[in-house]
Amino acid sequence: MSWADYLAEIVAFLIVVWVFVRYGAPIFRRATDQRQRVINEQLEASRRDVAEAEKAEGEFNRAHEGLAVETARLRDDARNQSEQIVAELQERARTESARILKRGRDQLAAERDTAVRHLRSDAGLLAVELAELVVSEYLRDERRRRASVERALDGISSDAAGPSRAGGAALAPASTGEGRN
Question: Interhelix angle for 25-140 vs 142-157, to 10°?
């Protein structure tokens, strides 16, 4: 190849380079600039997203700390309320127990009083029945009956004996009368 050929090739190459730089490079440059702009926008959006995520994470952490504090407070409140409820129920149980015990004691005292009254009444009736049996048995014997009547008459006629002694002497069995049986 000759020199002219080299020169023609160099000129043709320079023309191609010039056409490419003049018309092709701006197209590539615009595409590259546009792509660079998109990448920068995406990078800025990513930075904003990171900042928002960090801000949201900070808010989340503060909320989580607040939630932990609130949870602890609620747990303490619930524990206090349960202790109050237990104390109230224990006091209520003590009060109810004391009331039931008092009612039982009152009822027992009333039943005891009723039983004592019945026993006294029954004892009185039994004493009267026994006295009646003793007197009727004593008065069945003719000699005893006469001895009692004589003692009663002696007691009435005697000025030394008081009215209560005369009545008592009339009903009391004579010691000499019992020995005769």
Answer: 90
pLDDT digits (tens, 9 = 90+) for 108-166: 899 999 988 888 888 888 888 888 887 777 777 778 778 877 887 888 888 444 555 44
Q: How far apart are CA 181 and CA 179, in angstroms?
A: 6
Instruction: Give CA–CA dist 1/6, Å, rounded.
Output: 7
DSSP string across the chain: --HHHHHHHHHHHHHHHHHIIIIIHHHHHHHHHHHHHHHHHHHHHHHHHHHHHHHHHHHHHHHHHHHHHHHHHHHHHHHHHHHHHHHHHHHHHHHHHHHHHHHHHHHHHHHHHHHHHHHHHHHHHHHHHHHHHHHHHHHHSHHHHHHHHHHHHHHHH-SSS-HHHHHHHHHSPPHHHHHT-
Structure pTM? 0.37
